[in-house]
């Protein structure tokens, strides 16, 4: 457990928050509570709900611009994870020597809760949600934050949780320096967001490993023994925390592994066993997610009965392999949260029927080659949903007979419905960001579900 740092009066300190979304508004509220002089600046328009919050709290803010005179005299800046290092205002702050940190880093100063941090290219939202569900079911006083739910800073300001389960993206980790994670989980490392890392996988991998940066021998690092990129980084890295790996390919002790259809967790004196057929989350990738969550639960010495009950009764999050409806014998599944190729690979891998795949959006330099084999064997048609679909056509024209372009969720669903037959699955798993036609992946998923209901 961390010791709460003594925080001196901050009245003289001026904190600027860049970005007024969930994390920015929460950071501003906590900063005000801690006696900072706070100013919030957003280069875009601020959503009504956050504008109202800032007004209610009497926090000064601006939108659709960054006034340099207001920003560059900050003692410290908390920036939204969405703002890249290359943004002009960030470059200027760095030049003037003003520290730029994340909301997580800032909020971490004001809590002595036990921190469970979960990162990875794929599966982190599911694993974070499942871990929180297990801890909550076990009666722990636990908060859920990071990339999910209410902002960490806002919860630190308004709640008194003993534990936090945080979903941590690489962008959040990049701006974390002193923050310490007591139980760190790294699920996997696959190419994603490489445009933010000079198109170098090793830079992105180094970012993920920042989750271990302040750990001590009393902390835990939970990782996938089957993930080559994770192992590659670990070869040249000294990790202070106690290591607990998981694998579906080999037996591990301490750690978690598969023995035929039994998921086994064996750490210290703790032993847990459960049939994978009883897990609420099915598919190979979800065995990994369940193993990671199960190890966290055993580190916290939760009862096997509670873990088994939670892992068997968990409902998956919205937009992640979410079953929508069955119409004329055709299943419709919303996996809008699959914004990279690897997520779509996991989705296809878990399908046991023929698939009509809805793919496309803003391509982040995607390499579709890893999907080719699964597409060849499982996908009967691809429905493109995006403004520019050339790269999808180029990638799959030899593997699929039918590739159709559509420009709205409604059109995509209608075309997919006509291409599918009884027993098939229509899968929205785009492998791309959503900003060309939608506000975000949630908007895309909800429009998809609405279109299915209208069939």
What this model shows, in words?
The structure is a single chain. The protein is of the alpha/beta class. The protein folds into three domains: 14-101, Rossmann fold (3-Layer(aba) Sandwich), CATH 3.40.50.720; 105-313, UDP-N-acetylmuramoyl-L-alanine:D-glutamate ligase, CATH 3.40.1190.10; 322-453, Mur ligase, C-terminal domain (Protein-Tyrosine Phosphatase, Chain A), CATH 3.90.190. Helices cover 34% and strands 22% of the residues. It has 17 helices and 20 strands. It has helices spanning 22-33, 48-56, 68-71, 88-95, 103-108, 124-137, 152-158, 170-174, 201-208, 228-235, 284-299, 304-313, 341-349, 372-378, 390-396, 409-419, 441-453, and strands at residues 14-18, 37-42, 60-63, 76-79, 100-101, 114-119, 142-146, 163-167, 183-186, 220-224, 242-246, 255-259, 262-267, 270-275, 322-327, 330-334, 355-359, 379-385, 402-406, 425-428. The longest helix has 16 residues, at 284-299. The relative contact order is 0.09. Mean pLDDT is 92; it is low at 1-11.
